[in-house]
């Protein structure tokens, strides 16, 4: 038994389950912990995250995180390091734990750190030093390691030995050594790729810092780390985030599969939630139903706070109060997606509460849908378009569609009033992978973007009365192909007949 916590406890293990491969019935061998070669029980896990030995129902033997093989993480690091000039070092740190009142937020790893390491524990960091070995770099992983007293409360942490072996680090050290190691190490390199922390804890008041230190000793480490980073001259310090953003924008086949699975879970949940929705139900219940279905399908959390906007609430683009009651005759705009195995999904559907669109609802819905489908057709590498081009195209198409159904649009009506948001954003580990994404760059195969035109009609006399207070958005996730787009969110119905079919149970769906 390797865990210091467990070896300290006088517990005899009576049965070791030795999972071989997924899907094969596991035999319960009666062994004892003291026997040589006995493997660790799957429960409680000996690691700080799901790994094949402890969670064979979630991962395949070669996977480091569900759906992503260990060699893909190796490939990501190599690709990054190969792209850098000689004399470069990369530094990436885990996300800090956030505390809310007395309880703790479910921890979510920092996206770039996770992309490079697959390591899911807080209080961790990685240093990658470019060198001339065949691997191309040297990797040092810092983490909290075993601490029996702490693990008794928070669960297992991966040992340094396992951190090195499983996550393929040349060296695994305590996070407490990170600031001093970093300090001595970066003096050796002329290019230090690192991101300056956005909310520097050093800038906090003395009292809040001591409170943070009380909550987590690692905050002290973080503060020291920030001092080291800020002391670097601007000529040597280079931002890491733009490089990561570029690399992350092209999804590997494994990532595409995980994202397709995430979109499938969300798409099915949308379909079943249409069936669940009835006049008289609360928006909150609709949101809860969606989340329940996603969790039931294995999603770890929602990718964002869902928008469940009934009737005129749909005119508020980021309506998340979700505290009204669905009325007969209204449409519901639901913008909701789950996170699955580290990747976000993002789907919006608009459907009738009664199960049947009214004529004006159908007319406006069909206008948005026609534009949306035409735009998806342009999501190919061969189309040579960027996100700005696609957005401009969406404005043109929506104007044409609206003019055909009786709108008399004046300059600015569409962009300023009826369709005030942007068409699209890249999506992946983060819901909006846009902060460093160049909207002027041509779309390339392997990118995944959303396509989400919408029309929101305020009750003003310059727009046809029968469309007043309607808000419609239709959003899919699209994988850019060389010549064809692939709609990842295809399991959520969007044709009028399919939506009505889902709502009415014609597709064989029951409310639950
Ligand atoms: Mn979106």
From TrEMBL:
Protein name as annotated: Peptidase M24
């Amino acid at each position: 038994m390797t865990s210091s916590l467990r070896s300290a406890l006088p517990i005899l293990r009576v049965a070791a389950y030795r999972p071989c491969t997924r899907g094969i019935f596991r035999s319960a061998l009666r062994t004892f912990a003291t026997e040589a070669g006995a493997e660790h029980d799957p429960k409680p896990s000996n690691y700080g995250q799901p790994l094949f030995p402890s969670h064979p129902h979630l991962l395949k033997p070669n996977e480091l995180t569900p759906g992503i093989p260990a060699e893909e993480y190796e490939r990501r690091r190599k690709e990054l390091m190969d792209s850098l000039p000689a004399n470069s070092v990369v530094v990436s740190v885990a996300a800090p734990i956030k505390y809310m009142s007395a309880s703790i937020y479910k921890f979510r790893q920092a996206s770039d750190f996770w992309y490079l390491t697959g390591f899911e524990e807080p209080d961790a960091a990685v240093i990658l030093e470019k060198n001339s070995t065949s691997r191309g770099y040297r990797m040092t992983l810092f983490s909290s390691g075993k601490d029996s007293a702490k693990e008794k409360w928070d669960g297992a942490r991966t040992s340094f030995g396992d951190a090195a072996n499983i996550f393929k680090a040349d060296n695994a050290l305590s996070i407490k050594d990170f600031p001093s190691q970093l300090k001595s190490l970066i003096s050796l390199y002329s290019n230090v790729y690192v991101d300056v922390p956005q909310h520097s804890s050093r800038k906090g008041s003395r009292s809040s810092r001591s409170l943070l230190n009380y909550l987590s000793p690692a905050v002290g480490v973080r503060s020291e780390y920030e001092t080291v980073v800020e002391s670097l001259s601007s000529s040597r310090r280079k931002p890491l985030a733009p490089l990561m953003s570029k690399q992350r924008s092209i999804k590997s086949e494994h990532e595409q599969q995980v994202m397709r699975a995430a979109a499938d879970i969300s798409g099915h949940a949308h379909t079943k939630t249409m069936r669940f929705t009835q006049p008289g139900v609360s928006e909150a219940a609709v949101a809860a139903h969606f989340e329940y279905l996603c969790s039931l399908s294995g999603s770890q959390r929602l990718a964002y706070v869902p928008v469940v906007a009934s009737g005129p609430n749909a005119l508020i683009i980021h309506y998340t109060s979700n505290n009204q009651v669905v009325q007969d005759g209204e449409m519901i705009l639901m913008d909701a997606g789950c996170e699955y195995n580290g990747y976000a999904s993002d789907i919006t559907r608009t459907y009738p509460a009664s199960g049947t669109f009214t004529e004006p609802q159908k007319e406006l819905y069909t206008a948005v849908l026609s534009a949306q489908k035409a735009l998806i057709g342009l999501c190919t590498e061969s189309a040579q378009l960027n996100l700005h081009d696609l957005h401009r195209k969406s404005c043109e198409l929506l104007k044409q569609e609206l003019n055909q159904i009786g709108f008399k649009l004046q300059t600015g009506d569409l962009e300023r009033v009826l369709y005030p948001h942007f068409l699209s954003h890249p999506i992946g580990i983060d819901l909006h992978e846009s902060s460093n994404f160049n909207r002027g760059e041509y779309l390339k195969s392997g990118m995944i973007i959303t396509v989400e035109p919408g029309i929101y009609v305020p009750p003003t006399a310059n727009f046809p009365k029968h469309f007043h207070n309607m808000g419609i958005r239709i959003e899919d996730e699209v994988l850019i192909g060389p010549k064809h787009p692939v709609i990842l969110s295809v399991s959520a119905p969007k044709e009028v007949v399919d939506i009505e079919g889902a709502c009415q149970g014609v597709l064989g769906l029951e409310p639950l």
